Amino acid sequence: MTSKEYKTITDIKGPLVFLEKTEPVAYGEIVSIRLSDGSEKNGQVLDTSDDMVVVQVFEGTEAIDRKAGVKFMGDVFKLPVSKGLIGRILDGAGRPRDGGPEIIADENADIIGAAINPYSRQSPHDFIQTGVSAIDCCTTLVRGQKLPIFSASGLPHNDIALQIARQAKLRDSDEEFIVVFCAMGITAEEYNFFRSDLERTGALENAALFVNLADDPAVERLITPRLALTAAEYLAFEHDYHVLVIYTDMTNYCDSLRQIGAAREEVPGRRGYPGYMYTDLAMLYERAGIVKGKKGSITQFPILTMPGDDITHPIPDLSGYITEGQIVISRELHQAGIYPPINVLPSLSRLMGSCIGEKTTREDHKKVSDQMYAAYAQGRELRGLVAIVGEDALNERDLQLLKFADIFEDKFLRQDRDEDRTIDETLNLCWDLMTNIDTKYLVRLDQELIEKYLPEEKNA
Amino acid sequence: MSKNEGLIYRISGPVVTATGIEARMYEVVRVGHEKLMGEVIEIHGDQSVIQVYEDTSGIRPGEPVLSTGQTLSVQLGPGLLTQIYDGIQRPLQTLEEVMGVFITRGVDADGLDLEKKWDFVATAEKGDEVSGGQVIGTVQETDTITHKIMVPPKSSGKIKTIKSGKFNVTETVCTLDDGTEIRMMQEWPVRHPRPFSQKYAPDTPLVTGMRILDFLFPLAKGGAAGIPGPFGSGKTVTQQSLAKYSDAQLVVYIGCGERGNEMTEVLDEFPHLIDPNTGKPLMNRTVMIANTSNMPVAAREASVYTGITIAEYFRDQGYDVALMADSTSRWAEAMREISSRLEEMPGEEGYPAYLSSRLAEFYERAGRVETLNGEDGSVTVIGAVSPPGGDISEPVSQGTLRIVKVFWGLDAGLARQRHFPAINWLSSYSLYPQSLNQWFRDNIASDFPEVRTQISALLKVEAELQEIVQLVGSDALPIDQQLTLEVARMIREYFLQQNGFDPIDAYSGVQQQYAMAQAILTFQDEAKKAMAAGARLQDVVNVPARTELMRARFAEGYLEKIGGLVDAMVVEIAATAEAN
């Protein structure tokens, strides 16, 4: 409606532009700013009143001066969506980055995304086999879940994410996922790694990439995941695709959020992050799931790097309260040369209970997983004790558990980057490894299962 | 322009400033052309600051704002039970019918079905003198709950007409002399506690079926409890267990800033669950409020008030109501978010300075009361707290602990060891045992408090011994202390651990809890005797009857079997002494 151009900028500060004497401008409205050299930048209204409008500029405010012309586009941010998104690479603001044509829109979708009515959701219950033993056995992934990877700098989270993207499938089904990949402030090198891997495996044809790299504008990162999720929702709920959304790195996203907060002189919360970060993150993470009456689904794999390996840092902390579990990557295991270095102890899948068992995976899954976990947890604890008192002070049971922890890491956790284990292989492997512990110490397994599954030589 | 219509001056996220209306604090207003619902939370001269319960994108300055003259209220009457509401009492099912699967905005929905006809049975008669809170009739709302129709708190007089029959909630069922018309539906402002005659001291436990709670850290009906714990420690599972098995007659469950999928699980599961106390579907006694983390933040702030007002309404009918709020931290964060948009001076960690008084006001709405009509009713409040990083020195945990008398501290370490419920027996406490001991003596066993003391003492001794074991290993301890460790291990693995997903073990009656505690003490006594007679600790611990005793708790009819199992254990333990 308004195509009027205003030249009433009063202040420019960080990523924000303040202007006055406008006609009524809508909250969240898209803004186009024309610089004196003729180039354009885009932004969005963050605060609006009769006297003053605050615009957040996605590309940064560099080179904007008070003479720049500001146009309000009369609408909130929308992404043109169609099936043509599949196989495309877009930049962080949704423009083609692969040299291809503009996306021909079937519709323009609001990128903020409305909340799914909890009453209209369907509980996720389809087991996703990732082929990674540590995940399939101990932190089982379910279709429609949001399960982040909590990692830290210098750890191979990207390899794990890619391996999952490559191998994830429903059991006894060839149905594949469409991958929506969203890069936020990662390096060009990391991005190339993702892209070439997706290309190598042919997955790129079935993927849509939204890419904001480290040298792209930081503020743009705030919309990149929203674009990716909008695309994912469209593909899942309009075209029945099962979509796997991988976004990395949430830490960069949160830092951009902090940057905007600081520029607006908001009262900061913990460690300078804005007080509304929980709500903001929830508006991304909660866009996962399955809704009644639709065939498609959205499964999310956000990756975040914990600053200083600290799981109580606000970013992993708030994420953990929203997501349905977490997969924690351990520096200790990585340094011991184990791939994937997944520490199963703090890892968790909250939806696991709904997707394992006789009908979906195998009857022994729950108990085997509990037993493996308990034995490994005790073994790890004993390592600490042995460091003080030495192995001699341990009784027989403790010695077995101590050894089991090593075996667990070496045989169960460790696998190749291309090794795709079926859930049966994983569970059988568990039973094989449990022969290293006396049956009478396997208190979480019942006799029936032991007779049925424990390898013979031991059982006898 | 009249005084009840103004214009939007400014929009910043969920906070809108309007000019030109003369609104009262907490008055409900309609914002913009789409008439979004909002509430006045601050007044500066001519400007009213409004928190809006729906997304404000696309709204412009200059759009109209209408005041309604009412404060945020809920509709109370038949039709509340089995409902699932959002934070401002809009039924989610109705929203789905109107908007589809995504929650958009600008839709109004009544909390109660205004059309549905209910069978009203008058219990008062023409000519009766009635006053506020008095029951004038009943409606059988579900199999288990009889909904009592009460005179609204502020009305009184002589009944002029009253009739039984089929009515909807807005039809007049009774008139008073002064012309007051009484309908089955009343409205009540959510931020205002409903009145009662007086508060009593609680003297009856809320039986939850969870051993560690009922036995060691009991909560009284009408009491308040806080459950703080880091993510993944089992807050939600504990809250859901309480909603399922506690012996309250009615349950109000508030999912405040919760995960969507988790809420859906509750919504899917509850209709199929059977109440162990009545044998009827659990949903029949449940009202749910679901405001997930991505739904508008202002509605999240309102959701706990909506919930507790509904709870008080049923309390006024003489019911014991339990209210679960999961999680109060999300509610506090909603307050913080709104406060920061208002540019208020922040208190600790950015929370508003009034955080602790709001928490106190909320928990103070719990209580066992004599209602206006002289009946006994209670609201028990159980609030989950999600402290950042699991550190309970933060303001929400601290503000909560200052008020509640029961603290069930969840522990990430226990959760990691798969010890569930992961409630730490050393840090948790309850201040109710004194007032509840008489109930336990009268209803369970005369030595119940003493048995409890013995069990908790054993756990304390174990904690001390464990410190030594960490340094020198368990073999270095004298044999009687090694036995104490074994007994304590039995308490932990057999008694404190409880599998919330096992159909039998999930609920343990207090009688059974007492029998199990007794069985543990018997084991200790017999083991001491046998060892004094020369038995080896290892043999005593490994008697098959003890394993059987522990394992059998997963089978039906356990309470009846315990006696026999304990007898068998006693015989076998005695035999270990003879074998040597």
Structural overview:
- The complex is a heterodimer of chains A (460) and B (580).
- Chain A has helices at 133-138, 157-167, 188-200, 224-239, 250-263, 277-285, 314-322, 331-335, 365-389, 396-413, 423-434, 447-453, 456-459; strands at 5-6, 9-13, 16-20, 29-34, 40-49, 52-57, 69-76, 78-81, 89-91, 107-110, 115-116, 121-122, 127-129, 141-142, 149-151, 169-170, 178-186, 207-213, 242-248, 290-291, 297-305, 325-329, 342-349.
- In chain A, helix 9 (365-389) crosses helix 10 (396-413), helix 9 packs across helix 11 and helix 10 runs antiparallel to helix 11 (423-434).
- The model of chain A has no long low-confidence stretch (mean pLDDT 90).
- Chain A is 32% helix and 25% strand.
- Chain A starts with a strand and ends with a helix.
- In chain A, the strands form 5 sheets. In chain A, strands 9-18-17-19-21-15-22-23 form an 8-stranded mixed β-sheet, sandwiched between helices.
- By secondary structure, chain B is of the alpha+beta class.
- The termini of chain B are far apart.
- In chain B, helix 4 links the parallel strand 21 and strand 22.
- In chain B, strands 8, 19, 20, 21, 22, 23, 24, 25, 26 and 27 form a 10-stranded mixed β-sheet that branches. In chain B, strands 1-2-5-4-3-6 form a 6-stranded antiparallel β-barrel.
- Chain B has 16 helices and 27 strands.
- The chains are: A alpha/beta (460), B alpha+beta (580).
- Chains A and B meet through strand 5, strand 11, strand 12, helix 6 and helix 7 of A and strand 1, helix 1, strand 9, helix 4 and helix 6 of B.
- Strand 11 of chain A pairs antiparallel with strand 9 (102-103) of chain B.
